[in-house]
Amino acid sequence: MKMSLKDWKVWMRALIDGLEASLSAADAAPQIAKLTALRKQLDGPTVARHRKRLEEALDALVESDVALQIASRRCLRPRVQEAMQKALVTMERANRVLAQAAQMRMHSGKKRRGRRGAAR
């Protein structure tokens, strides 16, 4: 699913804000300046190529700075954990639905069709 430009900008701003908030106060000045410069680039019109460049610039910035790497872990870890929990819940629901479907097939007496459709 493709993300709309508006959604992408909201997501990028939230990510940059989260990184900024997760920085240690002791050594945040240079990193905040770099993040602010990236945030300003979001205001202009962006095409897919421009978005990709901004994403790569943010990745490079985080990779090159230990303080930003630590901040990214602080910022993203709760989001990743929440996403994993939601994925597990979804998988459990899917397993229940598949088990019910298999049970219904067994009770209906119909043979299971192969991948290509009806048996030959």
SSE blueprint:
Elements: H1 5-22, H2 29-41, H3 48-64, H4 66-108
Helix pairs in contact: 1-2, 1-4, 2-3, 3-4
Describe this structure in words.
Helices cover 76% and strands 0% of the residues. By secondary structure, it is mainly alpha-helical. The protein starts with a helix and ends in a 12-residue tail after the last helix. The model has no long low-confidence stretch (mean pLDDT 86).
At a glance:
The chain is mainly α and 120 residues long. It contains four helices and no strands. Helices cover 76% and strands 0% of the residues.
Figure out the total of helices. 4
Helix percentage range? over 70%
Question: How do the SSEs run, as a string of H and E?
Answer: HHHH
| Mean pLDDT across residues | 86
Low-pLDDT stretches are none
Strand content: under 5%
Which key features would you list for this structure?
120 residues, 4 helices, 0% strand, mainly alpha
